[in-house]
TrEMBL record:
Name of this protein: SDR family oxidoreductase
Domain (NAD(P)-binding): residue spans on this chain: 7-192
Species this protein is from: Gracilibacillus xinjiangensis
Pfam families registered for this protein in UniProt: NAD_binding_10
PANTHER family assigned: FLAVIN REDUCTASE-RELATED, UPF0659 PROTEIN YMR090W
CDD domains named among the record's database cross-references: SDR_a5
Amino acid sequence: MKVLVFGANGQIGKHLVSLIRKNDKLEAKAAIRKEEQADYFKDLGADVAIVNLEGEIEDMAKAAEDVDAVVFTAGSGPNTGKDKTIMVDLDGAVKTIEAAKQANVKRYIMISSFDTTREAIQSAPESFAPYVVAKHYADEWLRDTDLDYTIIHPGALTNEAGKNQVELAEQVERGEVPREDIAHVILESLLNDSTIKKEFQVVSGNSTIEDAIRSL
């Protein structure tokens, strides 16, 4: 299975591409915004596509023509304004969904926010609410497709080394989780069809990622 990773140059994306390259069942294609980011992924042995999430759906669909799955790990980041949140976390996400459809790629995995319900929007701090809104509508768009989707809702992300110990279910208590473990969750979701048409929250816990995914 060849996997196109949007947001590959982000922290989760880099972990994911590295994990994919170590798995003999998967191949990686890194969707990145700048040519100068390419050498990192080529050195890993991954294919590269230069694609701007603020660009055209057709460019994203072209990047997806030779793949079997699409993963969206991109994010505008905490230091950008509401405009970038809309352009990347909402519009960019929706365009990659539409690109997958155009390229006839059925498998799609979305990295969302921990809670994207209407209640979460209303209770979010003012500075964070636009991000939750963007993720809410991107998730809704994906649910309304016939893609074989999985929506992953990670807890508060950290840069600690992955522990391969998580709690994973439709609803869990809020907590932290290393980005490396989320990349591992994506990998196991790609390898397990039981995650298709599922969405779940993930925080650090006491189960191995493999066991947690199999329990879905």
